[in-house]
Design a protein that fits this description.
- With about 290 residues, the chain is mainly β.
- The protein is built from 5 helices and 10 strands.
- The strands form 2 sheets. Strands 1-2-3-4-5-8-9-10 form an 8-stranded antiparallel barrel. A two-stranded antiparallel sheet has the order 6-7.
- A hairpin with a 4-residue loop joins strand 2 and strand 3.
- The longest helix has 18 residues.
Amino acid sequence: MNIMRKTLIGIFVLGLLILQSPTHTLSAQNSEVGACVGTTFYLGELNPTHLFAQPKLAAGLVYRYNLSPRWAIKADFLFGKVSGSDQLTNDGYERNLSFYSPITEFSVVGELNFLRLYNSVGKNHFTPYIFAGLTVFSFDPMAQYQDGTIYELQSLGTEGQGLEGMPKKYSLTHVAIPFGIGMRVNIGRYVCLGVEWGFRYTFTDYLDDVGGRYYDNDLLRELRGDIIADMADRTPELFDNSGNPLPLHQEGEQRGNSTTHDIYSFAGATLTVKFGNDDKTCDLKKSRKRH
């Protein structure tokens, strides 16, 4: 995880350096840099429908390049967390699984303003917008064992990943499609305040470590030990009306929905500062000299 975070930070910084290099003579005149803060949540097997369930704090860095009063390109480096639980966000589903995961992402999106946006006094200084692009993100689902110990679930292979005849363990780095809506307001010539809400449609079903079928629990216990077998099927931690533990699931029973991918969302506020030539506005037209 630390290596991935450093890599994504490096990509973000490298992108800024490229955009600010001498070969991009307009970038310093149309650039914004700042920060964002907000909340994240997830939609998947452990939270199928509840928006903003178990929200977590997220924050990051933002760079925007204004191509015109209607179009902009934005890069962001964001760090947050998502979580889900059958008992808390899936209406007490008897599967009894739960997780939380840090999220580190680097995104590049295109923004389309509904209105033409300017810095100039007397011209329009606010607009709603839509955005879409590409995200590279890392994650690492974890859960707490009965004794309070936190385990990284991907390394456990809770659905038999890595055993003979089973798929290999899923990757902790994936791509996603970010899309959403927002509102930007220029405050004077140099400050821009924005709010936005977007989703990241991922190409993995294991953001929550739940995506396939139950592996033979007895065999999993024999091959990998009690802890992994217990984490793979946590139904016996629940009790029926008579106080008896619920039975383990049978091999091959559905543990997750392999036909869908997980989604996570970020909603928050952004504050950026414009820098460069004072004679530049978002309309990208230089002021004419008077003779």
